[in-house]
Each structure stands twice: as structure tokens, then as C-alpha cells.
Amino acid sequence: MASKRKFPHTFVIIFSLIAIAAISSWFVTGGEFTRTQKVLPDGSSKNIILPDSYHAVDSNPQTWQVFSALFDGFVGKADIIIFILLIGGSFWVMNESKAIDVSILALLDFTKKLERIKWIKKIGVNNIIIVIIMTVFSTFGSVFGMSEETIAFIIIFVPMAISMGYDSIVGVCLCFFAAGLGFAGATFNPFTIGLAQGLSDLPLFSGIEYRVVCWAIITFIGIAFILRYAAKIKKDPTKSPVYEADEYWRNRNAGETEKIKYETHRSAWITFGLVTIVMVLFSIKFTMSHLKVGQWVVDIPIIPILTVSFVLSSLGALRKSVHFFILNLFVFTILYLIVGVMGYQWYVMEISTLFFAMGIASGMAMNYSPNKIVELFMAGIKDILSAALVVGLAGGIIVVLQNGKVIDPMLHSIAGSMQNVGKFASLSIMYGIQTVINVIIPSGSAKAALTMPIMAPFSDLIGVSRQATVMAYQLGEGFTNMLTPTSAVLMGVLGVAKIPFQKWVKWAWPLILILFLVGFLLLIPTVTMKLSGF
Fold first, then answer.
1. Cα 23 to the chain's mean position, in Å?
2. Most buried of 170, 191, 201, 205, CB within 10 angstroms?
3. CA–CA distances in Å: residue 331 to residues 99, 337, 357
4. How far apart are the C-alpha atoms of 391 and 2, rounded to whole Å?
5. What is the pLDDT of residues 265-302, one digit of tens each?
6. SS3 call for 293
């Protein structure tokens, strides 16, 4: 009997896409737009395309670059790759402490107590947890564009979801997919809405009223879909498309939770003292923080507040066991992450550093020797290395397309398809164009700089508001981020969660299609109705 044919490995799929991108460079006539720097309302500048500046250039067919794409992809996505490696190593140290196991056990015990309440039992305590977590992450994605940061949460939510009777897909949806829903229904996201409106000469974050409605609808549909899927997996876990792949998570530290010894080492108190000193120094240096979300700005002594809160909560945690202290470290790591993003424009370098420090502090609190901390850190890097390799390889697709002079001719060609087709048809074409381009260029800011200087003036000619054009960009930019193999974040998330790319695509495409159609319907009022800010 012939053996069952296996689906190609994720690496094979991505390398095939690189080859296809290289082949296309032999048949696409070379061309480029002229680019210039434009100063945005917030004072920053962006390299944008000048309208009507497209001109022919020599083609640059790609050949041996197919094999150098991994190197180029690693260089281009170095920040994300290092972020993944540091996160993997840091969480491995934290995981060795069994603090994550303790948190999951505490959550499961808490849910059992809640089930004693009739109305909660009727709704389902797990359903309430899913809704709350996904709503929080959707809000983060909508407000400040949480994306790369979700990679750090996968190591927490995937084992938690499996412990609750679900699978790794539900764990990924709790944070990454939820943040993606918010990213598509952006309200104050400076990397999409802020940039697109700035490039379109619109007041920053104007039209917020309708965008909030869109965010609520998109988030509701996404959560409803996940709840329905989660209920099916809860009833029969073997129906999960990743049931076999999840064996890794089911076996990880299986049967070891009973061996946890609840105690507080002297080293934990020392670590608490050192962390407190560092936080006090930061409180002195950054007494007032300038937090900004969209047009909402507030000056608040948030870091001193966090310092006092950390000290008080840590004292209570240390009296229970070192595991609860490490959990407290993790919670305040997340709080510092939020403050850093909102008040100090942190990105992956600062966030990586924050988690790296958390990993070292966790090891110190457990009284691990420096050598053991290093060994655990290296074990975590080894475990997560495949995810980093996927990110580098996926980045190679974009490099080949850019070097092959394929992207600009493609944009010029499809932009011409909007001529003389009417308002709504033109807006629909814009939506389709943004969706297609996002498969190739998943970066929201890069795509805004590439498309908005062309789309915004064109919308004036056909009588469509520039706000509607920004909406077409926003919705077209959001959904395919959760499906395209060129997304470093998606490939990183799937790598960390141990979910094969093909299985994710098979599961996710129906939901993405539903969301795409919903996005199409949400564009109709921007043409047919008088909306505030439009």
C-alpha cells in the first residue's frame, strides 16, 4: 500500500513562494514610483510615493537570490527574530520554576468555584474567560496596535487553553487573533489609522465614532466564531485539526504539577529587594509619564504607582510561595510593557529587554545558579529556534519581490483598474487592492506609505471621502495579517505554538473570508450615509 502523501512542511511552502516571487520578476516589466519624505502632523516623517510618478526602469530578474533570501530575510527581520529568541529563552527559565503551572492550576480552581454561581454556570465560566481575554487583546490591537507583543503571550495562553480542555488554536486566538481583530477594527492605532490619516491630510483619529462601531462588530463576530469552535473542541478534543501537534503541549511537564513544593527561598526576597531598588530608581527618573492614546493625553506618575503596587503585591505573593512572586513579576512586566508602548514608544528591542530581565529575575528568585540560568535560557532558544527560522525565511519573500522590481508595477497596474467604475465600485476595488497587497506587504505602516499617497488624491476625483479610503486601507490591511506567510508575526506565533502553517490556514480561512465580507459591508455606509468625520 502506498504511503499517505504528506502535506509540505512550512519551510517548503515558504521557499516555494520565494521561488514564485523570483520567477515573476522575469515576466513583470520593471517600474518604480518616485518617493519623497513627507512630514506628518505628529512631527515624524515618512518616505511616500508621489502620485503620477510611475516610470519604467530596467527589470531585475532574481536568480541565485532565491538561495540568499534566508540571509536577507534574517537581516530584514532581525528585530523580530531576536525578540522571539529572547522571549523563548526567558520564558523557559520562568517555565522551569513551575510558576506557569501554578497559575493555570489557580485559574482552574477559581473557575470551579465560579461554577457554583447559577448564572455563571449557565453561561459557562470558560466562555466568560475567553470573552474577557479576547476583548482585552482586541482593545490593545485597536488602541496601540499590539501585534509583535502577542508572541510573548503564546507560551502562556496555549498551555492554559489545553489545560482548560481546548487546543493550541484557541490559545493563539485568545491573544494573537484577538489583537488582529482589534488591529483590523483600529480606533487609535498610530501605526495604521494615525499614519494613513496623516498621509491623507486628515485630522488624526477623526471619524472615531464609526470606527468604534466597526471595531465592536468585528470583535463580536470573531469572538462568537471562537466560542463556537471552542465548544466543539471541549466536547471532543480529537476533532481539533492540531490534536496530534498538541501532543507536545500535553506532554510538556505532564504529571509534574503534583511535585510542586510551595516555599519561598531566601533568594526570592533578595530578588524582590533588587527589583524594588531598580523600580524606585526608575520612579525617580521618570516621575511623570506622558501617556498618549490617539488624541487622549494624560500626565500621570504611573511608574511610581506601579512601584508601590509591586512592593505591596509582592509582599503578599512571597508569603505564599516563590511561584506567586514570579507570577507577580510577570504581571508587572506586562504592565510596564503597556506603559512603555503608550508613554515611551517602546518597540521590540525594549520589550525584549524587559522580558529578558524578567527571565533572569525568575531564575534568581528560584535560587538557580548562573550556569543553570544560562543552560535553561539556551534550552528555550533551542526549543523556539524553528519559529525564528520561519520568520527569516518568510522575510525573504518580500526581499525578492522588492529587489525584483515587482511591487511597484503591480501597484500601478491594479490602481489603474479603478478608473470610471463608480464610487462604491472604486472603493470596493481599493479594499480588494489593499487586501491583496497586504498578502505581500503585511506591514501596516509600509503599506500606508506605499498606497495612501496614490489612493487619497484619487478618491477626490471620484467623489469618495478620504476617510472612506482610509477605512478601505484599514480593513484591507487587517484581516489577511492573520493568514499570509509573509507576516513575521504570524509565522513567529505559529512557530512558538507548534501549529503547522497549513493546518492554521485550513482552520482560519473560513473565518477570514467571513471577516472580509463583513469589512465589505462596513464600507457601504461610508459611501451611502453621512457619518461623523467622513
1. 31
2. 170
3. 12, 10, 13
4. 34
5. 899 999 999 999 999 999 999 999 988 766 677 889 99
6. strand
H-run or E-run covering 100: helix 99-114
Q: Is residue 170 within 8 Å of 233, Cβ to Cβ?
A: yes
The length of the chain in residues reads 534
Q: Do 217 and 172 touch, CB atoms closer than 8 A?
A: no
Cell numbers for 455: 489612493
Stated pTM of the model: 0.79
- The helix/strand count (H/E) of the chain reads as 23, 6
Residue type, 287: T
Check if the beta carbon of residue 319 is closer than 8 Å to that of residue 348.
Answer: no
The helix/strand/coil state of 46 is strand
Nine-digit cell string for 159: 498551555
Copy the grid coordinates of residue 464: 469618495
pLDDT tens-digit series, residues 40-91: 666 667 677 777 788 888 888 898 888 888 888 888 888 888 888 898 899 8
> Measuring CA to CA, which residue among 186, 176, 189, 190 is closest to residue 216?
186
Q: What is the DSSP string of 30-74?
A: PEE--EEEEE-TTS-EEEEEPTT--EE------STHHHHHHHHHH
From CA 385, how far away is CA 86, in angstroms rounded?
A: 10
Write the burial class of residue 515 (CB in 10 Å: 0-12 exposed, 13-18 middle, 19+ buried): buried
